[in-house]
């Protein structure tokens, strides 16, 4: 088969647009063919909408983007493409006719693939010229972000076609799943359709709303399914003896009316296939090891979802709001008057590098977080910033005196060395909480700016007066030795 | 109902251990009751195994951990607990007998909940004293990490019981899903069971292995299910007219043999329920808005999975390895001799703060990444560090001269100002790639250390000589104005 530099699309729509965005992003030219000329504008819009997310999928260096062209002439597309992907409506006769036609225009070493969700390749390739270069390559929406593509060959498909298609699809970032036998719905849509039909029954019978049924997945099994399928998850649920124990324990439930779908008979031969399959998946890893991996990704995914305030991430946010509130009340009751403002933190695993020590720039991160807390206390909050005013850090001099290990509780104190209309000069000290060891100092100059004018401007009187209170309270403290020194100067101890 | 300070567990096992770990972590005392005394050691082990992941779930301040005690006497547990959670084997008669017994020992204002996967509360509460305080509270494994808990009341359950249980379970970080009608399997397990039975059919008929079926989920729909359920996902797949269009387009597929599960008739009334349900879920957000949210979390989850080299994260890793290799070959061919070492990067969304400007400490992050690249080139790699030698940053003075916006390409150049046996003095400049504007400078002193002895030590001769080559090449360049100055000094321009 030939090297793919140009992808031809037979039909556009949501799936065709997704294929175009993915291929262009990874440096492949695309010729989109659609009988409706208005689809040119449509597909350009779809590609533009995909771009912001695609641009963040990987920060590895990319080849120059591919070029998009559009035609209403299927033949013009077929004569230029190195690989043709069909995305027309899910009607067998229509697909058969169009695939047969395009196969007459494309050279015999051009692979032709169908995006069909559930039609089988033997049916689709029936009337094609050179049907051995045909296969089903079924992607998932959004095609530009989800890596899965099911590859299914028909009775006349050559094995080399499957391998060449897998190579190209891997090149554009996909995971090629080779389906060993054609069945309606391939693999994924059979599983999705089973859930979907059960949902329709439950909504139909008034057992639950669509929203409740979605919640029943996204706060529980859905989090697990992001990286382990039902079989591996049940293998873990079985404890040390894995899938075999799980089948013994929950086998009887297969006879219970837990879904409208009847289960097959749980024969010895089926049990053996399930156990052998999951053992191959475990690949020698113990249940304990796999549990750790599962726990790691479950934690990490929930923290990611928190950023977007969605699903389990919203639950975590609400929990943390309550925890911060409870802790704030306790701290306010315990803080001595006149002390330097104190900011508490713990060294997170993602802040560490070789040796589990906190990475150098995270010291600056903690000083930044301490400044945020100080600003909030001085009245510089979201509302203040919406008025177009904020503080910028103009200079920062960090001296590293000790190491911090993952999980260690730390705290930062902040001494205000000086304030004027536009400038705030501070000195941070970072301590380990366990023994109050000084781990770093940070001297910083902050400038108050008018963001619209993009220049220095006086801070509000209210903020100034709150910072003055701190400066006055801290003036009695001696000037830190490390302040006012260039890099490399020896401190006088 | 009373405030819950002590959770009583009736039965331990994987689910009981998960409840214990979660409750203790959020400050609730736990009394675990099990007839088998050896389960005391077992549950302590289970709690210890849960701790590493739980400790990273949130970094918000936590109350002091709860205390665990164990007893083989159900009555002793029931008399001290404020809330009792039953986790014994899934046998109706056994559960009925044990729940009736424990209900005679526990005061009438103590809620009693069952972890049952699929038995119904009306059956379970039949023989209980004060059955109005009974409900099903069905959690998911691992209970200490997954927030979902299904709450189901029986014929005799008081509405106040459901609300009080929801309050306590929310307190320990869970998402309480109120199930409006009892059905075998509640909601979640009906959906899971439909997938599970379809999997068993496919393995039984030799269509696919357990591993292939797991892949068919984790590289595609599973990523979506982490934060949106099937209904919301299909609403998005329907384009601007959402679920209604989707049902019109894929309704006929409900008659196709895509699963062994027969679908219900797609009546007008069912269509209305599906459309109204998903419209309520969309809560006024447009398809476009929801697509952006979906794309955001799909990208973020894949980046998280990359860290653990699992599922779609492995696909992304393999892709990036190829991209870096391709780019490295291209760059080596294009780099001019004698230039300052250059490190390229793009401002990532998670590096920005208010206004989409890069946060102050990320300038230090980029200087750190530039140093890593320079060290790698000088032979300081993983193998070198395994020998117990590395460089520590001892001081860092950053001057901020301009802003960087999200998505902007930047680059760092690094000038070696001096090297001796143990010290490396460098000067970084951060530029915007589009116009070569200087955005920041960073003067740093690095110290070579013997990590075992925890003190400064000479670097290897090979590393020293590579750094000397750079120092000599850079000595001809003028000393940067900003070098050697304290914070607040004015540069001579």
Task: Walk me through this protein's architecture.
The structure is a homodimer of 493-residue chains. The first copy, chain A, is α/β, with parallel strands linked by helices and 493 residues long. Chain A has three domains: 6-186, NAD(P)-binding Rossmann-like Domain (Rossmann fold, 3-Layer(aba) Sandwich), CATH 3.40.50.720; 219-334, no CATH class; 342-475, Hotdog Thioesterase (Thiol Ester Dehydrase, Chain A), CATH 3.10.129. In chain A, 44% of the residues lie in helices and 18% in strands. Chain A contains 17 helices and 14 strands. Chain A has an eight-stranded mixed β-sheet with strand order 3-2-1-4-5-6-7-8, with helices on both faces. In chain A, helix 1 crosses helix 2 (39-57), helix 10 packs across helix 11 (242-250) and helix 13 (287-308) crosses helix 14 (312-334). The longest helix of chain A has 23 residues, at 312-334. Chain A is globular, with a radius of gyration of 31 Å. The termini of chain A are far apart. At the A-B interface, helix 2, helix 7, helix 8, helix 9 and helix 10 of A face helix 2, helix 7, helix 8, helix 9 and helix 10 of B. Strand 10 (389-400) of chain A pairs antiparallel with strand 10 of chain B, so a sheet runs across the interface.
């Amino acid at each position: 088969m030939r090297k793919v530099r140009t992808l031809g699309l037979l039909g556009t729509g949501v799936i065709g647009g997704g294929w175009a965005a993915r291929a262009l992003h990874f440096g492949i030219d695309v010729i989109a063919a659609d009988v409706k000329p208005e689809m040119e504008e449509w597909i350009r819009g779809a590609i533009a909408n995909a771009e912001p997310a695609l641009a963040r999928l990987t920060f590895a260096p990319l080849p120059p983007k591919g070029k998009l062209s559009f035609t209403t002439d299927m033949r013009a597309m077929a004569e230029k493409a190195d690989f043709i992907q069909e995305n027309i409506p899910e009607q067998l006769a229509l697909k058969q006719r169009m695939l047969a036609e395009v196969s007459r225009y494309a050279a015999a070493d051009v692979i032709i693939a169908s995006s069909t969700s559930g039609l089988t390749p033997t049916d689709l390739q029936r009337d094609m010229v050179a049907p051995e270069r045909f296969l089903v390559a079924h992607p998932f929406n959004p095609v530009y972000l989800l890596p899965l593509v099911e590859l299914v060959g028909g009775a006349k498909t050559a094995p080399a076609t499957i391998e060449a298609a897998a190579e190209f699809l891997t090149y554009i970032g996909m995971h090629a799943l080779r389906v060993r036998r054609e069945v309606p719905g391939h693999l994924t849509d059979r599983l999705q359709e089973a859930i979907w039909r059960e949902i329709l029954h439950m909504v139909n019978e008034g057992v639950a709303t669509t929203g409740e049924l979605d919640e029943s997945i996204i706060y529980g099994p859905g989090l697990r399914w992001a990286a382990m399928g039902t079989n591996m998850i049940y293998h873990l649920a079985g404890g040390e003896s894995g899938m075999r124990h799980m089948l013994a324990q929950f086998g009887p439930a297969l006879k219970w009316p837990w879904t409208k779908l009847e289960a097959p008979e749980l024969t010895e031969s089926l049990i053996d296939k399930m156990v052998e399959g999951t053992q191959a998946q475990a690949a020698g890893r113990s249940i304990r090891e796999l549990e750790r991996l599962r726990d790691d990704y479950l934690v990490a995914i929930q923290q990611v979802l928190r950023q977007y305030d969605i699903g389990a991430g919203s639950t975590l946010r609400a929990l943390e709001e309550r925890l911060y509130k409870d802790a704030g009340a306790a701290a306010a009751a315990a803080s001595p008057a006149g002390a330097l403002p104190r900011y508490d933190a713990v060294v997170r695993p993602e802040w560490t590098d070789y040796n589990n020590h906190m990475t150098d720039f995270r010291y600056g991160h903690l000083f930044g977080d301490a400044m945020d807390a100080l600003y909030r206390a001085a009245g510089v909050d979201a509302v203040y910033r919406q008025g177009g005013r904020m503080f910028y850090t103009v200079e920062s001099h960090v001296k590293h005196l000790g190491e911090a290990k993952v999980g260690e509780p730390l705290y930062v104190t902040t001494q205000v060395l000086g304030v004027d209309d536009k400038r705030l000069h501070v000195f941070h000290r970072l301590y380990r909480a366990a023994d109050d060891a000084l781990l770093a100092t940070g001297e910083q100059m902050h400038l108050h700016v008018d963001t619209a004018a993009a220049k220095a401007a006086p801070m509000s009187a209210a903020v100034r007066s709150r910072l003055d209170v701190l400066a006055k309270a801290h003036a009695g403290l001696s000037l830190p030795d490390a302040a006012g020194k260039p890099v490399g100067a020896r401190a006088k101890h």
